[in-house]
């Protein structure tokens, strides 16, 4: 969590500190649509994200207990990501964001 949010009693500031940035919302969206995804699958469905950024965002979402990371000890290594119950509580917000985008997105000429 960001240092500036630790001293603030505002719930909006806290929420933004947990899910700030475009990648976290897109990761949550892709996991909600697919259920379980491996790292490589997430990378494919998030065009433009770098390896470093995806790793960082996944770690932060895991620390906030919004996603679950399941590691299988095999060769080659296998790691799967899914939403936690806490992560699923953000789905209504994602739905509202989607609706807002549909209603307010500029039309293409």
Describe this protein with a few key phrases.
single chain, alpha+beta, Arc Repressor Mutant, subunit A, three-stranded antiparallel sheet, globular
Describe the protein.
With 109 residues, this protein is of the alpha+beta class. It has one domain (3-101): Arc Repressor Mutant, subunit A (Orthogonal Bundle), CATH 1.10.10.10. Helix content is 59%, strand content 14%. A hairpin with a 5-residue loop joins strand 2 and strand 3 (78-83).
Describe the secondary structure blueprint for this structure.
Elements: H1 3-6, H2 11-19, H3 22-34, E1 36-38, H4 39-45, H5 51-63, E2 67-72, E3 78-83, H6 85-88, H7 91-104
Antiparallel strand pairs: 1-3, 2-3
Helix content percent band: 55-70%
Strand content bin: 5-15%
Low-confidence stretches: none
DSSP strand tally: 3
CATH superfamily membership: Winged helix-like DNA-binding domain superfamily/Winged helix DNA-binding domain
What separation lies between the terminal Cα atoms? Answer: 42 Å
CATH class: Mainly Alpha
> How many distinct folded domains?
1
> Mean pLDDT across all residues, rounded?
90
User: In what order do the strands lie side by side in the largest sheet?
Assistant: 1-3-2
Helix count equals 7
N to C succession of SSEs: HHHEHHEEHH
Rg on CA atoms, Å: 15 Å
The chain-level structural class is alpha+beta
Q: Which architecture does the CATH hierarchy give at level 2?
A: Orthogonal Bundle
The shape is globular
**Largest sheet composition:** 3 strands, antiparallel
| Topology-level CATH name | Arc Repressor Mutant, subunit A
